Amino acid sequence: MNKDIISYILLFVILVLVQVLLMNHIVLFNSAVCFIFIYFIIKLPINLSTNLLLTLGFILGLSVDVLSDTPGLNALTCTVLSVLKRPMFFAYEQHDDQKRNVSPSLGSMGLFNYCKYIFTLSAIFCIIIYFVEFINFIDIVDILIKAGASTLFTFLVILAVDSLVYRN
Hints:
mainly alpha, two-stranded antiparallel sheet, 2 strands
């Protein structure tokens, strides 16, 4: 089996377990939750086929849903995030043949573009999950506060994890 496939499987399992066992129980200021498991979608290579990317995103979200007892929220949101991953990447990076086989990281995108990339994906994920969870627009201020706080928390944790993993 390929070394990269094993590392992605290991990353998948570790992130799902960290999310379910640790991050779901940490809520800052009664509003910010860290969704560390979306780091798996962020780290997948750009040249991955769309079908495989959507399938992996759905399986990731479904795994978190099953273990967290949430009725499909994460599966829906991870699938949407998988659809938007490639357009968001190319919104911040040029279309080069060299960029086709790249996995988004600090080294491949640079700090500024990578921060914009993960902040955008974190914001999309948090906004969708909170709007779907609350379903109504009556508590729009509460939804926006929770989505903003969770976006910032998720962004900072993902940036910290990636900076620990980053190799020159």
